[in-house]
Each structure stands twice: as structure tokens, then as C-alpha cells.
From TrEMBL:
Residue ranges of domain 3-octaprenyl-4-hydroxybenzoate carboxy-lyase-like C-terminal in the record: 365-485
Native organism: Roseiarcus fermentans
Name of the featured protein: UbiD family decarboxylase
Family annotation (Gene3D superfamilies): UbiD C-terminal domain-like
Domain 3-octaprenyl-4-hydroxybenzoate carboxy-lyase-like Rift-related, chain residue ranges per copy: 146-349
Molecular functions (GO terms): carboxy-lyase activity
Entry GO terms, CC: cytoplasm
Length: 601
């Protein structure tokens, strides 16, 4: 595909030479985090393919900076990044994680809000008011010449990008986000710039992007959210035209927060960022695409999409707590990489999110209930019972833990038995699998959110005693709700690095002298049944730095219409295999195959 020159007719004004930046870039932001004691700088050699994200995960699953007010959660800046091949990126490109929204205080700083440590309700109101002001008062971005743009200090074009190892994308220390499960390094905090060809308005959206080759990557833009990137793609597909895109890595903070936000479709997102920052953003022409890119970004990757073709992408650890398994998504041919001489790559932690009388009652009631279910009702599959205490006492929320593959009849007998054993205990009773910690309300809510089909998993019955609670004003009793939040079918793995890698990262954590960590939430990923041996092998290659092989495995593009469109899933029987004996790809009969689940657009 040939390179299309940028459209120079979009503006009549010449670039404004000498136009000074009047907002924070990423370097300024990190300095402010450091001064606020919200940044840890790690100069220990850190393997970006294996340990970097696992290391950061310890800052989230442990007590470090999660509940202790004198030890707030911090962002991380890695200044001595290495990879599984023994390469070092020190002095060329650092990696920063958690610097945009690692905590409410960090997010407030990204938004330019003065956080005085007030409660989240008050801070939320400040954030709301800031967004409303930016939407109503956008500040148009100003073009500057390429030679004045920090992001154009280094420009890599065709000869610098093509060729595989040591070229193009392979020169950037992109980390594995969920090592042990992800099949390639991913940009998890990159901002996609796409253009509405009908209006000329640019959209910035934060979506994952995986590496496939030195000059090729894939992206997943959510269809379900009706986002601008996907809507723009549909326009190019309808026109039968190639689509220009640019991936911004290391955006200034007021622009970085734009990515996950829903902004008015009639506004250019860089102008909205100007409204947030209170100053016009500096923009510059893309080198090989007809797009405006932020002049003060750290890295910009330009490329083109053929809307008639898709490539297999994922698995990837998602924010809903499971791996998203392989599916068909957008394939991008990279035509330029521009960057600062000393760059900072931003990455984001996604994946899985962590009175004496009350304790006594909780332990006693739980023990009595467990005994009743196991030894009176003879439901042998019951493993544990926990009555939740904080905020709601111990009689309103009961969690029952059952063995894997417990018959549905026994699950519901346990739910019924728990709500009838004591007349006012069990207004809300939930059955969960044994991988869910019943004493951790976040894990229980996770199971309810993602393992239930509410039409068949919930039963509401009347005539439960009101018990120790505020008096009812409309009748003498209340109802109870029972929820079967056990898995109804195999699911993808839990989206956290594998246990072995997390343990190795904890050893490094301790070596660099950071405070001890004790997990409060799930801290490693494990298989829940919806997985294949081939994806495991791909993940192992990614950890070993051999992700280029995985790119060869998926290099054969498929017709978009043949699989029904983006996010069509790859079924287990349709997974292609990299033959390590022949160094070729083995395709299943009938390839490409798509799973039976369709996406509701």
C-alpha cells in the first residue's frame, strides 16, 4: 500500500513558529507526582516482557498505598528497562505505569485539579465541573512546524521500520501487560487518533494495541460502546477507502484523560484537552497520514488500516477481570514512528481490579451456617460460608462457597437452606465458586457481575423476617434475594500475571527495598477452562520476547465479511497453530472459523 500524503488544505494558516507550550507534558507531570510523593522511580533492571507489570501489580494487590493514608498509592517510573532478549533501553526510553489514574489523587493531578484529600464525593464533583467547563469552552489547537515538535525529534520511515527484529516497533520497550497469558506486548495506554471523513473531526480513544511485526500491529476498538474510532472505521469501510490512524504514546496528562472519556462528537478532542488545560495544545502534521498529532507527545505511530481485512488479535487481560481470548480485529500497517530522543512510554494497569462484636458474630454465624449446610442438609459440596460484616452487619449478606461442578439442584438447596436456617439472616445470599474469596466483597461482586445470567440466576421470594434492621414502614416482612453466581460454563483465565511470574516480581520488589506487600485482592491469574494450549504457547513466547513468531502465526489476514466483522471470536476448533517443527502455520479445516456468539452492535 502506498503512503498517502497529508492533506495540506485543512487549514489556511501557516504553522506558528515559536508558539510556546503553556501546559504540562508528561515530563512535567511526572515531576509534579514526584514532588507530591506519588511516584516511585525504579532503576533496578526490569524485564518488560516478564516482570514489569507483575512488579507494579504488587503495588495494587498489597497493602502498599491502598488503605494506609500515610502511604498513598503511587505511580511507577522504570528507568532501566530490559527485555527477555537481554536488550536494555536505559537512556533511550523509560516506561511509566499508573501515572494517569493510579489513585484518585493521581487522577486529580492529571486533570489539573487541586485535591485537598477530601472524600471521593467532593472530588467527583470537581472532576465533573472540570469536564463540563472543557466541553463548553474548548480551545482550538495551534499548528507548529515539524522542526519545533518534540515528537518529531526522531523520525523512522519505511527503511527504519521494515525488516523484523531490531527495527520499528521492536525498538520500543512495549511491556507484556499480563505476562503468562498475553500473547504479545501491548500498548495499553495508547490513544488512537481517527478521523471522521465526513466532518474532518478527530477522535482520540484509548484502546489496546498489540505488536505483530516491526511494521504491523493490531487494535481492538469496542463496538459495544458506540465509540468514535469504530464509527469512523465503518465510514471508511462503506467508502471502500483505506483508513489513516495514529497511536499516541505518552500524551500530555490533560490529553491522556480524554481517551476513556465520552466527548461531544462535534468537538476535536485536542481542543477539549486545551479546555481542560486552559491553554491551546500544539499540534503537528503527521508524516505519512493526513492527521493532526500532538506535538508534545512522547511517541506517535502512524499507519493505515484496510477495512476489508481483519487479523487475529488477543488474548489480553481485560479490566473486567478475565482474559479476552483471541478474536478478529483491525490490522495496522505502520508507515512511520516519530518520537523524542529520550522518550517515556506510558502503560496502564488494567486486568483485575482489590468492632469486636461484629467479628465475633461474623465468625460464629458463619461456622454455624456451614455446619448446618454440610452436616444437617448434607450438601457436601459446600466449602465455606461468610456473612459480610462492614457497613451492613452480619445478617444481610451471606456468601456460600461451593466446589466446582456442584449440581444446580445442590446450589439452590444451599441457597434456600442458608436463608431459612435463621429467620432474619440471608436477605441477600450469594453462591460462588471456590476461587472466589467470600470475605472479599469486591470478589463477590465480580462473580455477580460476570458469572450470572440474571434471568435464571436470581430468585426473589417473599416473607423474610425484617430482623435487626430499620423498621419497615409498609408491611411486617420483607423479601429475600438468592443469586447463583457460580460459573455456568467455562470462562477465560483470570486476567492477572501467572503465579510464578508474580512471585518472581515480588522477589524483585523486596530486593529494591520497597515496603512489604500482603495481597488483599486476587494477585495472580489462573485458568477457568476457556483456553487452549496454543494460546499458552503464544504467551510463553511473549514472555520469552519471541512475540514476532506470534505475529507470523496471525499474519494471514481474513476477509472482514467472512467472519462477520470486528470482535468476532476465534473458536477453539478454529485456533491456528504455529508448528515449531516446520516453522509454519497449521490451519484448521474451514479456516477462518468464528464462534457462535455474535456481537450486539
Amino acid at each position: 500500500m502506498g503512503i498517502v500524503a497529508p492533506d495540506t488544505t485543512a487549514t489556511k494558516d501557516a504553522p506558528q513558529k515559536g508558539f510556546k507550550r503553556a501546559y504540562d507534558d508528561l515530563n512535567d507531570h511526572l515531576e509534579k507526582l514526584k514532588k507530591a510523593d506519588l511516584l516511585w522511580t525504579i532503576d533496578e533492571p526490569m524485564n518488560k516482557d516478564k516482570h514489569l507489570h507483575a512488579f507494579v501489580r504488587w503495588g495494587y494487590v498489597g497493602d502498599v498505598g491502598t488503605v494506609l493514608t500515610n502511604n498513598p498509592k503511587r505511580a511507577f517510573l522504570f528507568t532501566n528497562v530490559t527485555d527477555a532478549k537481554g536488550r536494555t533501553y536505559k537512556g533511550d526510553c523509560d516506561v511509566q505505569v499508573g501515572g494517569t489514574a493510579g489513585s484518585p489523587a493521581i487522577y486529580a493531578m492529571s486533570m489539573g485539579i487541586d485535591d485537598k484529600g477530601e472524600d471521593l464525593t467532593a472530588l467527583s464533583q470537581k472532576i465533573y465541573q472540570k469536564w463540563m467547563h472543557a466541553f463548553k469552552n474548548p480551545i482550538p489547537a495551534v499548528e507548529i512546524p515539524s522542526e519545533e515538535a518534540p515528537v518529531h525529534e526522531v523520525v523512522l520511515l519505511e527503511k527504519d521500520i521494515q525488516g523484523g527484529a531490531g527495527k520499528g516497533l521492536d525498538t520500543i520497550p512495549v511491556p507484556n501487560n499480563t505476562p503468562g497469558w498475553d500473547t504479545a506486548p501491548y500498548f495499553s495506554a495508547g490513544l488512537w487518533i481517527t478521523l471522521n471523513p465526513d466532518t474532518g473531526i478527530e477522535n482520540f480513544s484509548q484502546n489496546r494495541c498489540s505488536l505483530k511485526a516491526s511494521d504491523r500491529m493490531t487494535a481492538m476498538w469496542l463496538i459495544q460502546t458506540n465509540g468514535g474510532a469504530h464509527n469512523n472505521w465503518t465510514k471508511y469501510k462503506a467508502r471502500g477507502e483505506k483508513m489513516p490512524v495514529a497511536l499516541v504514546v505518552g500524551a500530555p496528562p490533560a490529553l491522556q484523560v480524554i481517551g476513556p472519556q465520552k466527548t461531544p462528537e462535534d468537538l476535536n478532542d485536542m481542543d477539549v484537552a486545551g479546555g481542560l488545560a486552559g491553554a491551546a495544545y500544539r499540534k503537528v502534521r503527521g508524516k505519512t497520514v493526513p492527521l493532526w498529532v500532538p506535538a508534545d507527545a512522547q511517541i506517535v505511530i502512524e499507519g493505515w488500516i484496510d477495512p476489508t481485512k481483519l487479523e487475529m488479535e488477543a488474548p489480553f487481560g481485560e479490566s473486567y477481570g478475565n482474559m479476552s481470548v483471541e478474536e478478529y480485529n483491525h490490522s495496522i500497517t505502520v508507515t512511520a514512528i516519530t518520537r523524542r530522543k529520550k522518550a517515556i512510554l506510558t502503560s496502564m494497569i488494567s486486568q483485575m481490579a482489590p468492632s469486636e462484636s461484629g467479628v465475633i458474630k461474623q465468625l460464629n454465624y458463619s461456622a454455624v451456617m456451614l455446619n448446618h449446610l454440610k452436616n444437617t442438609l448434607y450438601i457436601r459440596q459446600v466449602k465455606d460460608v461468610a456473612l459480610h460484616g462492614p457497613m451492613i452487619g452480619v445478617s444481610r449478606f451471606t456468601v456460600i462457597v461451593l466446589e466446582k461442578n456442584t449440581p444446580r439442584t445442590e446450589i439452590w438447596r444451599a441457597l434456600e437452606g442458608a436463608t431459612t436456617f435463621m429467620r432474619s439472616v440471608g436477605k441477600m445470599t450469594v453462591a460462588v465458586d471456590e476461587d472466589v474469596n467470600p470475605n472479599n466483597i469486591e470478589e463477590v461482586l465480580w462473580a455477580i457481575a460476570y458469572r450470572t445470567d440474571l434471568m435464571k440466576s436470581v430468585k426473589i421470594e417473599d416473607y423474610q423476617a425484617n430482623g435487626h434492621a430499620p423498621k419497615l414502614r409498609d408491611r411486617e416482612w420483607e423479601a429475600k434475594i438468592m443469586i447463583d453466581a457460580t460459573m455456568h460454563y467455562p470462562m477465560p483465565p483470570v486476567a492477572l500475571p501467572t503465579k510464578e511470574i508474580m512471585e518472581e516480581a515480588r522477589a524483585i520488589w523486596q530486593k529494591v527495598g520497597l515496603p512489604p506487600v500482603t495481597p488483599r485482592w486476587k494477585w495472580y491469574g489462573y485458568n477457568l477452562g476457556d483456553w487452549t494450549d496454543e494460546w499458552t504457547k503464544c504467551a510463553e513466547r511473549a514472555v520469552a520476547g519471541d512475540w514476532l513468531i506470534n505475529g507470523l502465526r496471525t499474519a494471514r489476514l481474513v476477509d472482514t465479511d467472512a467472519v462477520g466483522g470486528p470482535t468476532a471470536g476465534v473458536p477453539h476448533k478454529g485456533v491456528v497453530v504455529w508448528n515449531e517443527k516446520t516453522n509454519e502455520v497449521d490451519y484448521p479445516p474451514g479456516f477462518p472459523l468464528k464462534d457462535q456468539f455474535d456481537t450486539d452492535e
